[in-house]
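hey m, so remember when u said the tokens were messed up on ur end? i reran from scratch. heres the input so u can diff it against urs
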Amino acid sequence: MRLLFVLMTFGGSLAQSSIVPLLSIGGVTPDLPLILTVVLAMRRGPETGCLAGFVVGLLQDVAGGGLIGVQAVTKALAGFAVGMLVGRLWVSSPLVLVPGLVVLTLVEGVARFLLLQLFHYPASLGELMLHVILPQALYNGFIGAASMLATSVADALRRGRSWI
């Protein structure tokens, strides 16, 4: 199980820096490490979600060349928060997961902006929200919905039932 965790974490980070830029629409890319953090937190709980978020965020910080640790902190907090919600909300439902992923992306983006403000980041929140955070949140919601559909279809096909 630990090997799977390590492979998912490094694979998600590698995919973010190599494959995801090819999926760019108008300069907006999905945040695959955040989606991976949410999935791991839902399946394994808050501690694993926090650890996964920290590792993928740190790898994303190192690969991005920005301020090291900002994404690590925000993704770790996001993973912990989602892991804590598993027992309280029905997070496996697409009606909860997809809007939750959109809201979590918005919150994580604003938290990242606030952390960067401590170091005098030169962008305004409105500009960043309009051009980066909101489009990425919608893209993450689309990827989350598509992955839920793909998982449901694969599960139905594996059990020998029709998925329609």
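this time it looks ok to me. The radius of gyration is 16 Å. if urs says something different then somethings off w ur setup not the seq
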